[in-house]
Specification:
This protein is α+β, with helices and mostly antiparallel strands. Helices cover about 25% and strands about 25% of the residues. The chain starts with a strand and ends in a 5-residue tail after the last strand. Bound molecules: beta-D-glucopyranose (BGC) and 1-deoxynojirimycin (NOJ).
Length: about 800
């Protein structure tokens, strides 16, 4: 069952029913000002940091699930009926409801009693404001006398404090209203120099800024007293809950169309120019006035929207494919790339499942997110790498998270996730392969943001490697620390206290529990660093250190990690094997199979193929590959959070989608194109669209998890949008299955595709040039290259040179190499 459809031509997903199984959201904004918006206009906005600079209030986990948003009410002043054209919050029986989620914008449209309304929400590029563009058309035979009411509820900036500290917050709210603009200025009189504003293009009949005055006592957003009455109260908030609402009366003749614009924005004044006049307590509005004036003009709004579209077209043009599979095309050309930008922008901070309060920018998360976005945002990727590296510690370890606003490591979560540093190497390598910008290695970056500790990024990378080598366990494999990529495998935690954080509790000295995943990741990272050094550093000694270290861990990984038919996952704090056939539960885990094959462990002697066969046999389901089996049926003190989840959910044996592409890549590494693409398709959201009633999350983006076979809701997705699944699936399909892979020395084309495919076409922008790639598969094989031509000339290998400019034709024929 579906609740909408893809409009590939317009690059939109069109939702045709407002009561989707869950709110289906989109993101507005791409740099500083962001918002989430659901298919019924729920959601909120923030400036840079969803916790510390929240503009509008949102009540997560409310009933209905998605209340509070960017609401517009329409009232028929003759019949006194009112409704919301976005369905929520009034939930009337609308005709022709559609929500079009596009790239950085959402349009929600409907008809009710002969009044057609469409609202386009978007954030103009390089602005810290959002636009609501409301278009009204009277389809009735008679003139319509309408009232339009806008409504947002302001947040008192720090979303955590806003949701908890009521004894203070019910006293602090302040607003100003001037020239039809509502200014929210709580705490502006003291230490803040920022405020929010809510403006409109029309002359107002009235306004409200106090929630209770607008809604009326004991009423909700579905039934505001002001809208029912058709008249604002011109309330000025004093403490309690500040809101913004405008009242715009509109008369529409039959067939007449009118456009009304609302602007919601964030603005900062220089600290010494906060007030006007200077010694007053009144906001200096001169600095924001030109911005408001600009977007009160519909021509500028239209131009800003066109610029936004052009921006996305430009980003997406850098990689487009045409394969025989519509789901591959759709995800690669549009939605997966788009989701990669969202995860790059927001890490795990703000979605419908991430409250914007708990988690800032994750060290491992953002390094991985970058892998899917670097070709679209190379300059921002560079800046991000330097920000991340500045939260590294002198030991080589890293803060697990930092706040985007302050860019400082988050002490509450701290450090000691022993995989963290290694991801930085992968991110830097991906950045240099994409851009050829070796200068990043020389950038001087501090440790823990402490001035005076700056060293070249290159030194940071070396410390990442040393951090692992300084922390090897009894068998010579990396110690796991608090956890590795699997945050819930807490082998040193041993928590029996309710509510204690699994992430930060450590009751063992950490000198025994080892991770086979980190072993594989280490090998990949050490080889990347070796390749960097080979090209960049004139140091013969160093260029053997890293390959040697990689080889040693590779050998140990196989010797100690091999469990008979697959790779084990870890050793616990008592040295017992985890992920072994000897275990009662959790006999086989996905992560070590993927990473060890990527590391080349067991490739030469068939162990890799054996491990992948075990994955297929024991972990693969029609809804994707589950994280481990059998699921843990009880809580294990020595394993921690993983066993806290009921079987089939989250890390306890759900299809934890982030780890699936590692197996796709591994299958591609061993040449199994059919299997790789089959796994790709199982979790591809577009390919799951037809079962939207089972999947329940948005069919246009990946979710973190799909309930596993042990769960009663097998196939149901959760935690959509902000997940490493986005970047890794993008890497798996583009670089390993289609095989279009940036390297330090050129653009490698190494397809490993389903044998049924006749081939595919791709265009790839790379280092200033555009590559038009045609792959033919006449013998219907998965992998193998017979010939490669570049601009009509044969070349003897499959790494296409760096041209730096122009358009180049690459023609690759698969088959046995004839030479
Ligand atoms: C989740 C993990 C997540 C971790 C982050 C856990 O509760 O299950 O997926 O990585 O929290 O703190
Ligand atoms: C989600 C977290 O964001 C990520 O850091 C972690 O690796 C996975 N969960 C697996 O636990």
């Amino acid at each position: 069952m579906q609740f909408g459809h893809f409009d590939d031509t317009h690059r939109e997903y069109v939702i045709t029913q407002p009561d989707t199984p869950l709110p289906w959201i989109n993101y507005l904004g791409s740099q500083d000002y962001f918002g989430i918006i659901s298919n019924t206009a729920g959601g909120y906005s923030f400036f840079r940091d969803a916790r510390l600079r929240r503009l509008t209030r949102y009540r997560y986990n409310n009933a209905p699930l998605d209340s509070n948003g960017r609401y517009v009410y329409l009232r028929d002043d003759d019949s006194r009926q009112f409704w919301s054209p976005t369905w929520q919050p009034t939930r009337r029986d609308l005709q022709d409801y559609t929500c079009r989620h596009g790239l950085g914008y959402t349009v929600i449209a409907s008809t009710y009693q002969g009044i057609r309304a469409a609202i386009r929400y978007f954030v103009p590029l390089n602005e810290t404001l959002e636009i609501w563009q409301l278009t009204l058309t009277n389809q009735r035979a008679d003139a319509a006398h309408l009232s339009v009411f806008s409504a947002v509820e302001f947040c008192l900036w720090d979303a955590q404090d806003d949701a908890t500290n009521f004894q203070r917050n019910f006293n602090t709210a302040q607003v100003e209203v001037s020239d039809g603009v509502i200014y929210h200025k709580t705490e502006y009189r003291e230490r803040r120099n920022h405020f929010a504003y809510f403006a409109g293009s029309e002359t107002l009949a009235g306004f409200d800024t106090q929630r209770e005055a607008f809604l009326g006592e004991y009423r909700g957003w579905d039934n505001p007293a002001v809208v029912e009455r058709g008249e604002s109260t011109n309330s000025i908030a004093q403490g309690w809950q500040p809101i913004g609402s405008h009242h715009v009366p509109v008369t529409l003749q039959p067939n007449e169309t009118r456009q009304i614009v609302f602007l919601l924005g964030y603005h900062e004044n220089p600290p010494d120019q906060k007030f006007d006049p200077p010694n007053s307590q009144t906001i200096n509005k001169r600095t924001v006035a030109p911005v408001i004036a600009r977007y009160r003009d519909p021509a500028n709004v239209a131009a800003a929207f066109d610029a936004l579209r052009a921006h996305w077209d430009d980003l997406l043009e850098r990689f487009q494919v045409k394969t025989p599979d519509v789901h591959t095309n759709r995800m690669v050309n549009l939605w997966n790339a788009y989701q990669c930008m969202a995860t790059f922008n927001l890490s795990r901070s703000a979605s419908l499942y991430e409250s914007g309060i708990g988690r800032g920018i994750g060290f491992r998360d953002s390094n991985q997110d970058l892998l899917g976005a670097v070709h679209m945002a190379p300059a921002r990727a560079r800046a991000r790498i330097l920000d991340i590296a500045a939260t590294q510690l002198e030991s080589g370890g890293a803060y697990h998270q930092y706040q985007p606003l302050t860019k400082r490591g988050n002490n509450d979560i701290g450090s000691n996730f022993n995989d963290d540093p290694l991801w930085l190497i992968l991110a830097v390598a991906a950045y240099i392969k994409e851009t050829g910008d070796w200068t990043i290695l020389e950038e001087r970056v501090p440790y823990d943001n402490q001035p005076g500790t700056e060293q070249p990024l290159f030194e940071h990378l070396q410390r990442c490697i040393r951090y692992t080598l300084d922390r090897l366990g009894p068998h010579g494999l990396p110690l796991i620390g608090r956890a590795d990529w699997n945050d819930c495998l807490n082998l040193n935690c041993f928590s029996d206290t309710p509510g204690e954080s699994f992430q930060t509790t450590t009751n063992k000295d950490g000198k025994i529990a080892e991770s086979v995943l980190i072993a594989g990741l280490f090998v990949v990272a050490a080889e990347e660093l070796a390749a960097l050094m080979e090209r960049h550093v004139d140091d013969a000694g160093a260029s053997v250190v890293y390959p040697d270290a990689a080889q040693k861990i590779r050998t140990t990984g196989l010797q100690h990690g091999w469990g008979g038919r697959w790779l084990r996952r870890a050793d616990d704090a008592a040295g017992r094997k985890i992920g072994s056939h000897e275990c009662d539960e959790g006999k086989i885990f996905i992560e070590s199979q993927g990473w060890c094959v990527m590391a080349g462990i067991g490739l030469a002697d068939g162990h890799a193929e054996k491990a992948l066969a075990s994955v297929k046999e024991q972990l693969a389901t029609p809804h994707g590959i589950v994280l481990q089996q059998p699921a843990f049926s009880r809580y294990y003190l020595n394993l921690g959070e993983i066993s806290s989840y009921p079987p089939g959910y989250k890390e306890n044996a759900s299809v934890f989608c982030h780890s699936n592409p590692w197996i796709m890549i591994a299958e591609a590494v061993v040449g199994h194109g059919d299997q790789a693409h089959d796994y790709y398709t199982r979790i591809n959201p577009s390919a799951r669209e037809a079962i939207s009633d089972v999947h329940r999350c948005e069919p246009y983006v990946y979710a973190q998890m799909i309930a596993g076979r042990d769960a009663p809701t097998h196939g149901e997705a959760k935690n959509s949008w902000l997940t490493g699944t986005a970047a890794w699936n993008y890497v798996a399909i583009t670089q390993w299955i289609l095989g279009v892979r940036p390297t330090f020395d050129g653009l490698m084309i190494d397809p490993c595709i389903p044998r049924a495919w006749d081939g595919f076409k791709a265009t790839r922008g790379f280092r200033g040039a555009m590559y038009h790639i045609t792959v033919e598969n006449p013998e219907h094989i998965c992998r193998g290259i017979r010939s490669v031509q570049v601009d009509g000339k044969s070349i003897a290998h499959n790494v296409i040179p760096i041209f730096g400019e122009g358009t180049h034709q690459v023609h690759l024929v698969m088959g046995e190499r004839s030479t």
